[in-house]
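Listing 4. Sequential folding, example run.
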Amino acid sequence: QVQLVESGGGLVQPGGSLRLSCAASGMSFSANTMAWYRQDPEKQRQWVASIFSRGNTNYADSVKGRFTVSRDDVKNTLYLQMNDLRPEDTAVYYCNRPVGYFNWGKGTLVTVSS
């Protein structure tokens, strides 16, 4: 059974940084494109960034230049380095693959506030 466990969220001031992690198990992690998503209570879940199995990346325009997605296929872990955080980045962050979703994890809450 596939399990995705996100961690690393917290409270940070505007302009600050956080690094999120997503530990994956029960799947062939290295063979899968993986992605980060986020959702706040007033919006639908939205795509943030993707990384392909060979390391190519794509980003939503709202985070381009501030966020960096990476992966460690030995540790079966996905990362999201978030810099220059803004209040509008506040959300619960999830990882999953972008096609044929696995069961969603619980996510990790990021709150950007002064």
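-- end of first protein; second protein begins --
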Amino acid sequence: QVQLVESGGGLVQAGGSLTLSCAASGSIFSRNAMGWFRQAPGKQRELVATIVRAGLTNYADSVKGRFTISRDNAANTVYLQMNSLKPEDTAVYYCWYGGPTDYWGQGTQVTVSS
């Protein structure tokens, strides 16, 4: 079992920044991928960014150059630094841990006002 707890969401003006954190506990393997997805009202959940142990990262085109994902394997924590936020980034952001079974956090709301 894996538990994921997100923090760091909130309300920010366009052009601002936020950092999301996700603390993982349970049967964590640093070789497994972790990442962030988001879901806006009326839309499907979509990938934002993922990272694997070696530091290899993958980003959605819509956030490249603005968001940075990082991981502290010793602390089993993954971060998402979000800069130059846009109103279209407004969504519930979910932490993800990948493996034979996918695990999800409860989600944290990010609202970007114009």
